Amino acid sequence: MVQTDREQSNASPDGRPDSEQPQWHQDFPIDWPQDHYIARRDFTKFLVLTSFAFTVGQFWIVVQNFFRARRGQLPLQFIARVDDVRVGSVLNFTYPDKHDQCALLRLDQQSFAAFSRQCTHLSCSVVPEPDKRRFYCPCHEGAFDLATGSPVAGPPRRPLARIKLEFKQDAIYATGVELRTL
Amino acid sequence: MPVPANMEFFVDPTRCIGCQACVLACTECDTHKGYSMIHLEYLDRAHSVQTAPVVCMHCESPTCAEVCPADAIKRTEDGVVQTARKPRCIACNNCVLACPFGVPKMQTEFKLMMKCDMCYDRTSAGKRPMCATVCPSQALFFGTRDQIDALRPRSAPINQFKFGEQIIKTKVNMMAPRTGQAEYVDVTAAMGEQTIDKKITLNILDSVFE
Q1: Would you call A67 an interface residue with chain B, using a CB distance cutoff of 8 Å?
Q2: For residue B113, is it within any domain?
């Protein structure tokens, strides 16, 4: 009896029959039971669309991983020819951006080392001093070892970031930046 | 559990003595403690002490729900129009402006419309609404149609109202005299009238007395 009353009473205030009512009137019914009612077809639609969304999501993750593996890789950058760097000398260059100051050292005939010139204390620019075998930071009297980049004096606790080097046909390339804590 | 179909709400404004008992009883309800959902209106304060209690009439085509843009006002299967759902209500005031009876109240501190839901926690458990239990003159009566017929032999319940061009059928009944039976009560009949120098009548029932 209550049900029949509801069907009659659900008429819109404008008095027109249900078939002439706009679609939203059926989509957002006033009566609680109709509002909570989910047709089998709607439920199936929900299941299909949700599974479809999950499937698309899986492929999306694969695509993301494909790009993520390539992200963050620093470029290969030519620094100098081996012959152009004398033993015991320092060559300043920028890597990976043109504002990131770095220094390439030729320690002896065979060994090269490259470090970022950013002080690990407060990011001042350190000055290579090959005759004293150190990098000197003028801001707070900090010093780093020339060969290893590890701190030897002053406030810095961490070593300078090391630039990874690669040698190809007597040319030196920078391939990456290694941030170190010890 | 729905409100029993044979239990109905009858409002008889002519019996109202303005004691505010219903207002205070309403504030004691646990679902909206401290806030009264009932309106106790003075009809013409300058010339009369007559009051009329206004509870939600629970329309069969609730205008408040029709105008709600957030789909927050719902009616349960027993025809009780519930107060706004808190997760949905956007406090837009549309229902407050639209209701022909002026029932919904905007509680700005909660950003929520709150209205009389016929004490759904009580009536759905077989009890009477708070206001109907305390009303000393039984201007607010909740019971069966047989009971009201026996108690008010000279009055007949009316549940059709006219608000402008809109005919509203309600779940709650308004008691009107049996003599000069009216089809409906005109909600806005009193709005355009000058009440000065007129004998005091219950203005909302004017069309009944014609």
Answers
A1: no
A2: no
